[in-house]
Amino acid sequence: MNNQTIAAIVAAQRAYFNSGETLPYKTRRNALLRLRRMIHQNESAINHALHEDLGKSPEECYMCETGLTLTEISHMLRHLEFYMHGRTVPTPLAQFASHSYVSPSPYGTVLIISPWNYPFLLTIAPLVDALAAGNTAVVKPSAYAPATSALLNRLLSRTFPPELVKVVTGGRQENTGLLEQKWDMIFFTGSQNVGREVLRHAAENLTPSVLELGGKSPCIVDETANLKLAARRIVWGKFLNCGQTCVAPDYILVQENVKDQLLQYLAAEVTRQFGSDPLHNPYYGKIINQKHFNRICALIDPDKVVFGGGCDPAALKIAPTVMDGVTGADAVMGEEIFGPVLPVLTFHDIREIPRQLADKPKPLSLYIFSSDHRNIRYIHSRCRFGGGCVNDCIIHLATSAMGFGGVGESGMGAYHGKAGFDVFSHSRSIVDKKTWLDMPMRYQPYTKIGTQLIRLFMH
C-alpha cells in the first residue's frame, strides 16, 4: 500500500470523525456489540489462524486472546455510559459562582500498531478502548503473524466501514507510510527499538503516544516462598506461548539457600505441565519464525542447561529450558529473551536486589514469591517497574479494573478498562461560570480591599 492510499484512508477517517458520527453513546455501544458478535461468530477461524502463526491450542487461544478480549468488551459495555459522563470537581472560592468539571473527548483518528506474539488480543483490545472513547482507528497488525493479520483484515472489513475502522496489512514499507501521516494519537505495542522509531515520528507532529514495550522482567523467590507452588506458577507464566510474552518472567533471582530445591521443582513442573517430550506436545506452541528461533538458540549456553535445551528446527520448537550458574555477563542476560529459556541467578540478602536492578532499564513487570510481607514491601518500595504480582505472574494484566502499562524503557501510558477509555480520550477541564454574580475585585483598577479579598480567597 503506497503513501497516497494511506493518506486517503486517514483523510476519510478524519472527515468521518469530524462529522460527529462516532460521538453518541448508542454509536459507540453498537460498535462494541459488533466486535463481540464478530468474535463469537468466528472463534474457530481465529483459533485456526493463531495455531498457524504460533501453534496455539484452542484452550490457550481463548484464555490468552479471545477470552481476554471479550472480557474487555464486556467491561466497556457495562461502564461506557458512566465513563462518557463529565466528572464534577470542586471549585475554588475565588471562582464563585461556577461549576467545574472534567469532560472526556475523543482524540480523533488514531493509529494502532500491534505485535505478533498475541496478534488478536493486542490488536482488538486497544481497538475496543479506542472505539469506546469515540475515535476512528487505523489498525496495523504484524506481518510476522500473517494468518492472523489476514483474518483481522477480513473480519474487521466485514464488521465496520473503512471510515470507522480500517486494517492496513504489510510490512516495513506500510509501517513507515503510516508513521509519516499526521495522527491524533498513536498506540504502539512491540519492541523497544521500534518503539523509539514510533516516538521519533510522533514527535514531529507532537502526537500523543502510548508505547507498550517490554524488558527483562525479574522473578524474585526468597527463602520463605512456597517453592513448589512458586515453581508451578513460574513455569506456567514463563513458558506460556513459548515464552513469547512481554510480561513473562525473564529470569529468576532466587535466594541462594533454596536454589537447588527450586530447580528440582521447576524441572518437575515442566514435565508435569508439558510432558516428558514437550517438543511433541500438541498444546505447546512454536517460535514465530526462523529469525527469532535462531536468536533464542544462540542465547542458550549448553554448559549451563540443567533441564531441557532440546529443539526442533523444522518445527521451530524449543523445549522449555532452565539454565543455572548464570551471571550478568552471559548472553542470555544481555537482552529480553522472549522465548522458552529461563536463567536462574541467586542472591544472598533481599537488600541486594534494588541495588542490582537500579542501573538496569525499568522492567515491564516484577514478580516476587514470598511469605514475608516485609520483603514484599521492601521490594515494592525500592524497585521501579510497570506492574506485577505477589506469589504469581502475568495475571495482573487480566483485569479490566486496573490499567496495564510500562514505565521508562518498558513503555509509557496504560490501558484496559477505565484506563483504556482515558488513554484514548483527552480530559478537558471546563469551568462553567454563572452570570448572576460577578466578583469585581479581579478587574482594574485594583483596590486595597479588593486585593485583601483576593488574598483571602486564594490563601
How can the largest sheet be summarized? 7 strands, mixed
Shape call: globular
How many beta-strand elements? 20
Rounded mean pLDDT score: 96
Cα distance, first to last residue?
60 Å
Helicity range of the residues?
A: 40-55%
Spans with pLDDT under 50 lasting ≥5 residues?
none
Q: What's the total helix number? A: 15
CATH topology of the largest domain: Aldehyde Dehydrogenase, Chain A, domain 1
| Quaternary structure annotation | single chain
How many independent structural domains? 2
Beta percentage is 15-25%
**Spatial strand order of the main sheet:** 10-13-14-9-8-15-16
Q: Tell me the CATH architecture of the largest domain.
A: 3-Layer(aba) Sandwich
Going by helix content, strand content and strand pairing, the class is: alpha/beta
Cα radius of gyration in angstroms? 25 Å
CATH homologous superfamily grouping of the largest domain: Aldehyde Dehydrogenase, Chain A, domain 1
Supply the key terms:
459 residues, alpha/beta, Aldehyde Dehydrogenase, Chain A, domain 1, Aldehyde Dehydrogenase, Chain A, domain 2, 2 domains, 15 helices, globular
